[in-house]
Amino acid sequence: MIHLRRYLANISSKHHGPTIMRIMLIHGKSNEEHPTAGIIVVGDEILKAQVKDTNSLYASNLLYKHGVKVQKIMVVRDDVQDIAEAIKNFSGSYNYVFTTGGIGPTHDDVTYEALGLAFNDTMHYHPKLVDIVNRFGYSKYPSPAYKMAYVPTKSVLKFGVNQITEKPLAYPCIAVQNVFVFPGSPVFFEVSFPALCKELFAGYKSFSTVEVFVNAREDTFANILNEVVQKFPNVSFGSYPESNRYYKARITVESNNEEDTEAARRTFCSRIPSSMLVHYDRTPHVGSVRKYESFLEKSERRSIYEKSVEILLNYCRKPEEVWIYLDGSPESVIVLHLARVATEKLGEPAKTKLRGISPRASSFLQEISNRYNVELCALRNNGEILARPEMRTLLFGKRSDSNERDHENVLRLFGTSFPDVQIHFPLIEWTELDVASFLGSLSLHYCTEADEAASFR
Description:
17 strands; 16 helices
């Protein structure tokens, strides 16, 4: 199934043609400023936990950013009747319905058939879809590939435009009334879904949302939150206990306009002890120079931090030669963040690829590497790494007051394996208090081996 769709995705855009018509809401817009949506995920493999559904998460996130309220998500087995019933119910309940999965040439791909059944529509081989299939050599009917051209008669083909390449998409989204059918493979879904969102929801107003971070359990402020909820009926609140180094609960405040959202946030914050409130930044790497300089203005150890950045400014002028030892420790994350500050000071940080070496593979290290645009190379099991001839400098998060035994094995490895590589310690004069102050003020996350081990208990 996926192999065939991959072929179809390469079809020349000259065969697409313009969209026949623009889909209109059969219910009209919702009574509020924001339309509603339902998502139907099709597939036995999802229900059997053989495949993880990421499409509904991706779609919900994107729809929210476009000001659309997702009100229900349903997972349905590969059964024509069940899918048709879900489509029919969702179509009558929500302004927009999106399905993902059940498209392809195999026996369990029945979403198109279910779409026709839901609207009492006949099926036919759509000429444009047949043309797409034919152009890949499936010209002898009945090839299983033709199943991807067999759609409800009332279908509208919406090709859309790839938001990255700005080229027309090869295979269309099939739509009947307010229902839009997408493939289940995330590779194709995450390309075609944004194209449709841009077309359908360009004129809608996004939500006004803020977050409040509280370093206390929910029961300590639940009564206050309930009172504020009653005072602001047009504002939605959410409270979520979370495991975080810097806070224990996250409060979301959301409405259709900034004025109501801000008034509700301000009221809630004024009624709980100020000691509970936490300044927390989800994206400390964004605008890193501005945030770093703001931190310096309040710090009594300003010269120590400035000295480290000056060192990194010299190294980062040739980022391809500089590698950071990244093990998830507080010091290694700080070196990485300061390198980001340095590259931003030098210009175009988003285009600067930092290099990192890690002692192990982990989800945290991969996540932080993606966030900071790091090319991460893991040490082999025997402690060796592949030769990197461009490596000239290794930045190591070692402090003078730290335990020497924590680092000696790593330093010995680089000293013997890479005698021409210079090892530098930008944080050598930092104290433990300096580290704690910098981490807390900028909301930097770190994850040690002990943290990773505890997460699996």
